[in-house]
């Protein structure tokens, strides 16, 4: 039996603006994971994929070309030089909430590639894993920036610019994030497409907003490199204001952002596509319990405390 896993992620700064070429920062969230187990299957079975959380199972040879799970299994098999339909059963489990901006699709795909590479004893560098996963992100998201597959495959905080690449950077002082779920599913594809329509109707206005977000992401990187958590919190608040102006927040997110700040968070903002999904708050050791409680009172269905290092 072979087992491999991959973490979730959150975007700290720069979601949406990143699609238009501005820098963004994302971090892995190891408190939630996707896991893939590979076991030999009976002769002539072919490859069977079992997705426990979705109560779904399918044979690879019967799956459509544009099925994201089938696509990543086929791509991974080809990359580890295994043509065909080996008699294997892949069982996928995940603690990453689906459609909440936590990179569940990228994590499942990454865990599949890692598990197949391990099973066939083929070494794939993280860059190759990330590139394969990107090809399934296109099926999930339409026009992904590539930030999800990068942060999940490398499992490091990344400063990412679409089309240019990414840099890893130094986290001077570890910090705590409260990640709170609105319980509302959000379609990244739809929110990104809606924003595209608004952008096309008023390019100048949105270019200015995206430019401000990009400056915030660059300043945030410096604040993280210098361990300046007060500055970092302030930048999260500024980024949230711009996301509201872009029209990608929603009342539930706004309520939770306010609740986190009232509970003593240094800053808070939505994370990912918005209109549901998760929000994040920068919390101190002392304030984390109170922020957690305030978030739940404001409607959070789940709060994860993650240490960024
Ligand atoms: O998949 P999510 O919800 O984390 O959102 C992705 C972030 C966007 O910037 C909105 C889209 C993208 O492709 O980067």
Instruction: Report the portion of residues in β strands.
Output: 25-35%
User: Measured on Cα atoms, how large is the radius of gyration?
Assistant: 20 Å
Low-confidence stretches: none
Provide a count of the helices: 9
Bound molecules: (3R)-3-hydroxy-3-methyl-5-(phosphonooxy)pentanoic acid
Helix content: 40-55%
Count of DSSP strands? 11
Shape from CA axes? Answer: globular
Order of helices and strands: EEEEHEHHHEEEHHHHEEHE
Biggest sheet, open or closed, and with what strands and sense? Answer: 7 strands, mixed
Average pLDDT figure: 96
Structural class assignment: alpha+beta
What is the CATH topology classification name of the largest domain?
Ribosomal Protein S5, domain 2
Q: What is the oligomeric state here?
A: single chain
Report the top-level CATH class of the largest domain.
Alpha Beta
Whole-number tally of structural domains: 2
Level-2 CATH architecture of the largest domain: 2-Layer Sandwich
CA-to-CA gap between the ends? 32 Å
Report on this model:
With 309 residues, this protein is an alpha+beta fold. The chain folds into two domains: 2-168, 2-Layer Sandwich (Ribosomal Protein S5, domain 2), CATH 3.30.230; 175-308, Alpha-Beta Plaits (2-Layer Sandwich), CATH 3.30.70.890. 42% of the residues lie in helices and 25% in strands. The chain has nine helices and eleven strands. Strands 1, 2, 3, 4, 5, 6 and 7 form a seven-stranded mixed sheet that branches. A four-stranded antiparallel sheet has the order 9-10-8-11. A hairpin with a 3-residue loop joins strand 6 and strand 7 (165-168). Helix 1 (68-79) packs parallel to helix 2 (104-119). The structure holds (3R)-3-hydroxy-3-methyl-5-(phosphonooxy)pentanoic acid. (3R)-3-hydroxy-3-methyl-5-(phosphonooxy)pentanoic acid binds at residues 11, 15-16, 18-19, 101, 141, 144-145, 147-148, 188, 192, 272-273, 277.
């Amino acid at each position: 039996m072979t087992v491999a896993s991959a973490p979730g992620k959150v975007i700290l700064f720069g979601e949406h603006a990143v699609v238009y070429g501005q820098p963004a920062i994302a971090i892995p969230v190891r408190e939630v994971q996707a896991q893939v187990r590979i076991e030999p299957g009976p002769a002539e079975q072919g490859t069977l994929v079992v997705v426990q959380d979705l109560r779904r199972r399918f044979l690879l040879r019967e799956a459509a070309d544009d099925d994201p799970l089938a696509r990543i299994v086929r791509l991974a098999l080809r990359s580890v030089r295994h043509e065909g339909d080996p008699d294997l059963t892949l069982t996928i489990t995940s603690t990453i909430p689906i459609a909440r901006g936590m990179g569940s699709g990228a994590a499942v795909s990454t865990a599949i590639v890692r598990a197949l590479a391990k099973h066939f004893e083929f070494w794939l560098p993280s860059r190759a894993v990330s590139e394969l996963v990107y090809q399934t992100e296109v099926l999930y998201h339409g026009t992904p920036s590539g930030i999800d597959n990068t942060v999940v495959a490398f499992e490091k905080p990344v400063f990412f610019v679409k089309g240019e690449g990414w840099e890893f950077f130094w986290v001077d002082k570890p910090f705590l994030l409260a990640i709170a779920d609105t319980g509302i599913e959000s379609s990244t594809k739809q929110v990104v497409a809606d924003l595209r329509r608004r952008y096309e109707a008023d390019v100048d206005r949105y270019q200015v907003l995206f430019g401000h977000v990009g400056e915030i992401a660059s300043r945030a990187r410096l604040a993280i490199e210098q361990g300046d958590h007060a500055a970092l919190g302030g930048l999260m608040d500024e980024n949230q204001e711009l996301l509201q102006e872009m029209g990608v927040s929603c009342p539930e997110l706004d309520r939770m952002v306010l609740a986190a700040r009232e509970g003593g968070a240094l800053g808070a903002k939505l994370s990912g596509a918005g209109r549901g999904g998760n929000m994040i708050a920068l919390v101190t050791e002392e304030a984390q319990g109170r922020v957690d409680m305030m978030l739940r009172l404001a409607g959070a269905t789940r709060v994860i405390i993650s240490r960024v290092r």
